[in-house]
Amino acid sequence: MITITASCLGILISINNLNNNNFWNVIVSQTTILFFISTILIINPNSTWNPSNLSYNLSIDNINICLIILSLWLVPVSILASIGHLNNSPLNQNKIFSSLIIFILISLVIMFSTNNILILFIGFETTLAPTLFLISRWGNQPERIEAGYYFVFYTLISSLPLLIALLFIYNNFNHLSVSLFNFNPLNNSNYLLTILCLIAFIVKVPIFSVHLWLPKAHVEAPVAGSMILAAILLKMGGYGFIRLTLIFQYNIINNLTPFILPYCCWGGALASIICLTQTDLKSLIAYSSVSHMSFMIAGITLLTNWGLNGGIFMMIAHGITSSALFAIANINYERTNTRTLNISRNIKASTILLPIIWLIFSCANLGLPPLPNAIAEIFIFSSIISFSLINIVSIITTTILTAIFSLTVFQLLNSGNTFNWNLISYKTNEREYLTLSLHLIPLITLVCNPNILAL
């Protein structure tokens, strides 16, 4: 991980020395090369320069390796998607924008790879400032300031109990090592301590009832902010939740699972109902994320092999799918200047490939086999039903509603009569097709070989 972090710092330094003529070409090339080289080093355990062999405190395992690769993959893709609305911006603003994204990547790599819970917390909080700048500075509407307030206060208020709990754990056990806790989980009957540790990650995921910051942040953020927020930053909450549940597994299995499980299941169903009422495309995708992440938390809470595998699979599949949906939504917005579903319609009359890509990712979002979301849902739903059969009611409700709003979005945007005052050309360029293709490639890879995510 030191190699990856040093490479990111090198990209940060090179950003300040670029001119306007080759800025985007160099940034995309550097981040793409970083992704390929880092992936080769990470997945090759026999390499002398494997990042896991360079530091005792930064290492990789079967849980964080896929999240690190997903983070490295998303950076060049999000920059590609942002070139359209940033191409005419001043060079200094583009440099700041790119530097913020690289800084987020450094924080993510450190958080996902650390063996110390306190460093995990620091990496968790470090992403707050650059994400806030992306939302408040590059958002499209005045409401972006309010969205930034929601994002900051939800994160800070939920993180303070976690910091207090970590200090308490260190004072009583004299270490905060993830590896040591995996060998010797805490057999502590202090339920309040467990709740204080988990609440920060539950808010960051988020699950229903603590989700109000997410739709506001998604709607007001630029496309890169929405893609990073949906694909990576939400997974920080899931990853932290996995690490903390493995530490407090006795408390969670014996006492908290019977309460968290039905709450998350019905929360996911309620989020799906809210999706049916949305008229804003980005807001609908955000509420869809709340529904999927609620079931992800429900699967992880069970601490079974199927539940953990399903949770990790859901994080990766949802990261790819939601990022692609936000990228396509941005293509629509750049042409129509609106996100209202009833106005942006009849895309299929202007282009052929875009409706096909919409259909693929809509089917992925609703969990149609053999797409990766369906594999994750099979694992998670099977684990939930085996724990308590009554939860099948919320599962069936969510599955039906998710299919309804996913196909409704596809039908509204691609069918119907175009308004006379909205005759927009939907001709897409090579950069936009490349962005969408880079989402299709990992999706097809997971369909062909889902075992690459198995624990």
Automatic annotation (TrEMBL):
- One Pfam annotation, family name? Oxidored_q5_N
Instruction: Show the InterPro entries listed in the entry.
Output: NADH4_N, NADH_Q_OxRdtase_chainM/4, NADH_UbQ_OxRdtase, ND/Mrp_TM
Indicate the segments forming the NADH:ubiquinone oxidoreductase chain 4 N-terminal domain, all copies. 1-110
Q: Which residues form the NADH:quinone oxidoreductase/Mrp antiporter transmembrane domain?
A: 115-402
Its membrane topology: Multi-pass membrane protein
- What is the first-listed, main subcellular location in coarse terms? mitochondrion
> Which EC class is this protein assigned?
translocase
> Where in the cell does this protein reside?
Mitochondrion membrane
Question: What does the record give as the reaction this protein catalyses?
Answer: a ubiquinone + NADH + 5 H(+)(in) = a ubiquinol + NAD(+) + 4 H(+)(out)
Q: Which top-level group of life is the source organism from?
A: Eukaryota
The entry's keywords:
Electron transport, Membrane, Mitochondrion, NAD, Respiratory chain, Translocase, Transmembrane, Transmembrane helix, Transport, Ubiquinone
Q: Which residues cross the membrane?
A: 23-43, 63-84, 96-112, 118-135, 147-170, 190-214, 226-248, 260-277, 284-306, 312-331, 352-368, 380-413
Looking up NCBIfam families in the UniProt record yields: NDH_I_M (TIGR01972)
Q: Which family does it belong to?
A: Belongs to the complex I subunit 4 family.
Instruction: Please explain the role this protein plays, according to its UniProt record.
Output: Core subunit of the mitochondrial membrane respiratory chain NADH dehydrogenase (Complex I) which catalyzes electron transfer from NADH through the respiratory chain, using ubiquinone as an electron acceptor. Essential for the catalytic activity and assembly of complex I.
User: What's the protein name?
Assistant: NADH-ubiquinone oxidoreductase chain 4
Q: What is the lineage of its organism?
A: Eukaryota, Metazoa, Echinodermata, Eleutherozoa, Asterozoa
Name of the gene? ND4
